[in-house]
UniProtKB/TrEMBL annotation:
GO terms for molecular function: ATP binding; transmembrane receptor protein tyrosine kinase activity. Residues 1-126 form the Protein kinase domain. GO terms for cellular component: plasma membrane; receptor complex. One of its GO terms (biological process) is regulation of neuron differentiation. InterPro entries: Kinase-like_dom_sf, Prot_kinase_dom, RTK, Ser-Thr/Tyr_kinase_cat_dom, Tyr_kinase_AS, Tyr_kinase_cat_dom. SUPFAM superfamilies: Protein kinase-like (PK-like). It comes from Gongylonema pulchrum. The lineage of its organism: Eukaryota, Metazoa, Ecdysozoa, Nematoda, Chromadorea. This is Protein kinase domain-containing protein. PROSITE patterns: PROTEIN_KINASE_DOM, PROTEIN_KINASE_TYR.
Length: 126
């Protein structure tokens, strides 16, 4: 599983895809080494940024749209390279930082698949 995930992750270079730095098969458990994204995962960030009351505005709509756009750009890159992630969730999206100017990157390619691997076996639609 780790080998397949690392192999899949190593194929992608994009600003919205978490970069694979290396793997370690010598230790148990086996390790996948990713770029450091100090902002943590998107799920935790959104929970921490949730307004406590109606007058409290911790995160702006434009920030939410920017983060959604980052995820969409990452998904488009994967689709353009014939892959689907199959587990897009806030827990699998990581932030470069928590402050303004953050970039969201897609991580965890354990379920990603080449959508055209078996394309020759599929019937053609005319």
């Amino acid at each position: 599983m780790v080998k397949n995930t690392a192999n899949t992750s190593s194929k992608f270079r994009h600003e919205n895809i978490c970069e694979l730095m290396g793997v370690c098969f010598d230790a148990t458990p086996r390790l996948i080494i990713l770029e450091l994204l100090a902002g943590g995962d998107l799920k935790s960030f959104l929970r921490e940024s949730r307004p406590r009351n109606t007058s409290d505005q911790r995160i702006q709509m434009v920030d939410l749209l920017d983060m959604a756009h980052d995820v969409a750009k990452g998904c488009k890159f994967l689709a353009d390279n014939r892959f689907i992630h199959r587990d897009i969730a806030a827990r699998n999206c990581l932030l470069t930082k928590k402050e303004t100017g953050r970039i969201v990157k897609i991580a965890d390619f354990g379920m990603a698949r080449d959508i055209y691997r078996f394309a020759r076996l599929l019937s053609k639609r005319w």
